[in-house]
Amino acid sequence: MIELTSKQRAFLRSLASELPAIMQVGKDGISENLIKTVSDALEARELIKLSVLETCAEDVRSTAEALAEATDATVVCTIGRKLVLYRESENHKKIIL
Questions:
Q1: Please, what are the domains in the chain?
Q2: In terms of C-beta density within 10 A (0-12 exposed, 13-18 middle, 19 or more buried), how is residue 82 classed?
Q3: How many C-beta neighbours within 10 Å does residue 46 have?
Q4: pTM
Q5: How far is CA 43 from the centre of its chain?
Q6: Residues in a beta bridge with 78
Q7: Is 77 exposed, middle or buried (0-12, 13-18, 19+ CB in 10 A)?
Q8: pLDDT for 41-84, tens place per residue?
Q9: pLDDT tens for residues 8-32?
Q10: How far apart are CA 36 and CA 44, in angstroms?
Q11: Pairing, β 47-52 against β 23-25
């Protein structure tokens, strides 16, 4: 997990504002399957947005932190029921910070 400066975080937030949420976290919460899927998506895209459904047992911030820790990513922001994660890809670097 890398530490982002405020400028880097603002830049990533601006990129994420245009992204659709590609996954949902529901009543099952964070499962091994979800962690694997999120990790694969981060490797392919570097920056992803997820939606946390009302049925999820945990709040958005704790869900974001748990997913970030499990996937070695960084929480860019949480807005409402959405969260944004960033992890630099090892093979497909697309975003230059």
A1: 6-86 (3.30.110.60)
A2: middle
A3: 20
A4: 0.93
A5: 12
A6: 83
A7: middle
A8: 999 999 999 999 999 989 999 999 999 999 999 999 999 999 99
A9: 999 999 999 999 999 999 999 999 9
A10: 12
A11: parallel
